[in-house]
Specification:
about 140 residues, alpha/beta, Rossmann fold, 5 helices, globular
Length: about 140
């Protein structure tokens, strides 16, 4: 069985996330998603998610490509996750290109291109802009 792991916040789940998960699952048999916890997002990534960890976890668990969701609590856990779950492939978006090449001695590392024209940041920005327009009407 070939195991794949990917990491992310997966807030405001959108078709870019689905594309990543579908492509990742296509590389093997079992997809693990390490989902950043609320504390990790605030303390290390300096961002607050719209949905809580439990809400984001529930959404991910309902996607047919995802076999297991685990919490991501720190940057350093990638190595231990790969060892513990006997992962064959680490998948990340290409915005992280090169940053996890050091993991290549433990597993294959694949960077997928982001889906054009969609991101959680863009969705939040679009909603905020629409709110500003509506406030002035």
């Amino acid at each position: 069985m070939k195991k794949i792991i990917t990491y992310g916040t997966f807030d405001l789940l959108h078709y870019g996330h689905i594309n990543l998960l579908r492509r990742a699952k296509g590389l093997g048999d079992y997809l693990i998603v390490a989902l950043s916890t609320d504390d990790f997002n605030v303390e290390k990534m300096k961002k607050k998610s719209y949905f809580t960890f439990d809400e984001r976890k529930s959404l991910l668990e309902s996607i047919r490509f995802v076999d297991l969701v685990i919490p991501e609590t720190c940057w350093e856990q990638k190595y231990s996750d790969i060892r513990e779950f006997r992962v064959d492939i680490l998948v990340m978006g290409d915005d992280w290109e090169g940053k996890f090449d050091w993991m290549k001695k433990y597993c294959e590392v694949v960077y997928f291109p982001r889906t054009a024209m969609v991101s959680t940041s863009k969705i939040k920005q679009d909603i905020s802009s629409a709110d500003m327009v509506n406030q002035h009407e």
